[in-house]
Amino acid sequence: MENPKEHLAEHHMYRLINEELEQNPFSREMCTRFPPEPNGYLHIGSAYAIHTNYMIAQQYKGAFHLRFDDTNPLKEDIEFVHAIIEDIKWLGYDPKEHIYYGSDYAEEIYNAALSLIKQGKAYVCDLTPDELTKYRGTLMEPGRNSPYRERSAEENLELFEQMKNGAFPAGSKVLRAKINMASPNMNLRDPVLYRIIHAEHYRTKREWCIYPMYDFAHPIQDAIEGITYSLCSIEFKDHRPLYEWVLNELNIAEPPRQREFGRLSLTGVVTSKRFLRQLVEGGYVDGWDDPRLPTIRGLRRRGYTPESIRSFIEEIGSIRTQSTVDISLLDHFVRQDLKEKTVSVMAVMQPLKVVITNYPEDAAELLVIENNSENVELGTREVPFSKTIYIERDDFMEEPIKGFHRLIPGGEVRLKGAYFIRCEEVIKEPGTGEVVELRCTYDPATKSGTGFTGRKVKGTIHWVSADHCVKADVNLYEKLLLDEDTPKDSEDWTSKINPESLVHKKDVFMEAFVQDARAEEKFQFLRHGYFSVDRKHDTRVFNRIVPLKDSWKRSN
After folding, report:
1. Does pLDDT of 489 surpass 80?
2. Domain that holds residue 487
3. 91 and 189: one domain?
4. With 50 as the cut, is the pLDDT of residue 3 above it?
């Protein structure tokens, strides 16, 4: 086994595992797992957990398992299974043949429950859900023993078999572990191991009507698969004694070890499945893949790359407890990933017509423009230039403020990859005084790429030819929530949604270069940011991934 890579040496999980492996606790290879419940879509917080499990398996030349925690038929769906598999592979954490389902171990988990009953370590309890809560006690007061706690093993076996055979209604009985109702750890106060659910399972159909709780199924599933390290987020730390109790009482040799890492939170981002579902089902967003959501499908649709997400997680590094990271750090990494990969094209969001009066009528020429100023290997393209062009409205100012270096009356600018133009005349709408057209002249001697070394201008602006551009729609995104606090149950979502979180612009003028762009193909629109072709629409729609400005901060 090789030592962890140097840049991972400070990761507390690697240090912990290294120390434990020095005692040779396992005769099998490293094996980790990610166990999502298929009742929703993965989000950026899930990616951190996946990355941690996957990279540790890779580092120690072991295996990484994807195992669906599908033991609650009331919430789970095959749609989520397919989506989770697709998302994990897209992120770059392919489990290959190691895709498993907790429901496939139903017989083994049931037999484990029988073993505990026979040992006098589990019993069937008839308390109602409300009574269970009351008997459980509080953090300040111990719980009370159930009146059914001392049933004989024979009676418990008979009742549990009747539960399995569908003899009782849901909620009428549960199987509980017999541990310690006075334990300071609430998870050890005779936790529920099995409950009755009369519903069709997406895989096992009606074969079962009793289903194990996650805390019981989880360690058994890990043991069956030969998991060495069950790595999970910090909120499961108090569950670890129960995990170890189950494995110990079942006499599992070389039992898996549960170890915890910190939980990742992002500023201004909701990752709770419950709140995300409210946003989707309430129609506040365009489905689970809305580009404003932190779901992996939403991030992908917006245009984030798997490389940028992985770099973001690697930068965060080791989290011991709870860490809040500014979402703009993720934006930083997508910029870093795309800056040398994408073709820079010109798109005009708010067009202002410019007529070049001394350019020949009906003439056009092809100008050679670099595709990426930082990566010459992306080559060049030919961009049509003609007498009438469009520029951005805010690239012209009739009464310029101090520091404005773009086009003004009587002033010159360079057109990106083209010529100098001078504004000679401003045409306004008679009724409103709005500027509707500029009349300009161009200097043929200033053509880009010809070695012109004459007079200088301070400003360069982008443009498109009126006769050769194409139209497309653009979505501009800002943060979804007005503040960073997750709304309370009693609060109205409409008061929390940022009304500027999505600005849809129709008929944006763009270079014809983009007209054959494929879904998820990415570009840099000069001065506007990085954009991706929306994978959800048949018509051409570009989603802005991030603006060009790059600033971020980290807080803990």
Report:
1. no
2. 266-338+472-510+516-546
3. yes
4. no
